[in-house]
Amino acid sequence: MFKWYEEAKSIAERDPAARSVWQVIFQYPGYKALRMHRLAHWFQKRGFYFIARGISQHARHKTGIEIHPGAKIGKCLFMDHGMGIVIGETAEIGDYCTIYHGVTLGGTGKDKGKRHPTIGNNVLISAGAKILGPMKIGDNAKIGANAVVLAEVESDTTVVGVPGRAVKRAGERIRQSFELDQIHVPDPVSQEFCKMRIEIERLRSELSEYEKSLSNLKNSLSPDLEAKSKESTEPKQDEE
Ligand SMILES: CC(C)(COP(=O)(O)OP(=O)(O)OC[C@H]1O[C@@H](n2cnc3c(N)ncnc32)[C@H](O)[C@@H]1OP(=O)(O)O)[C@@H](O)C(=O)NCCC(=O)NCCS
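A: This is the predicted complex of the input protein with coenzyme A.
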């Protein structure tokens, strides 16, 4: 099967709105931009920068998608709607990724050389998301709509918000440290009781130490006195 047909077929399979593979080939701007990028990249790799840039700009006018000819794009990228997508020169995209309109794979302006992100396989980048910098986005990651991602994203992770924060990993919700746990709240009354019990135990052991040392002292000062005091405390059998 031709590569171009395989790519169109994979898009048709992933888009519930697609009616046929031929519709994707002739009427999907994302698909057109991808085909033109393959050509532009071919010229770029061979040093024909002017022609490469010309093709890229032509694709931009036709589709509203701007992909630098130097960007490396894997198999079967699906750019849904497409308008406003910008993909920078040193960006790399893995296989079977989906990118919606308004996405930027850009640089922060602080890096030199590799300035744009590296996207893994099967990554979803939602509408309006911005991924800025030369970091990696792991396989199967999902970037939420309008998120601004400035740091590396682990595989199988969902990132949302500005700046992007991980909210799910491998289907499990990630609990943020600042969130209040409404269920496992500590009980202040039982905590006070615990403290009091510990204090009573401490006082008891201290008291028994004092009692021991007092009786030792009495013994050493006057053994007779101690015996007498014991006798006086014991009940007399005769009297009964
Ligand atoms: C991120 C997204 C792909 C969902 O991924 P998911 O792994 O299934 O995550 P969930 O839907 O379970 O959401 C997880 C949490 O993130 C929140 N969240 C999801 N998307 C968000 C977004 N774009 N911005 C802020 N928070 C978001 C959810 O409210 C949820 O929060 P909660 O756990 O406090 O309830 C999806 O929300 C999204 O942004 N889709 C947009 C797709 C798009 O661009 N469509 C355009 C078609 S034209």
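The chain is about 40% helix and 15% strand. The longest strand covers residues 165-169.
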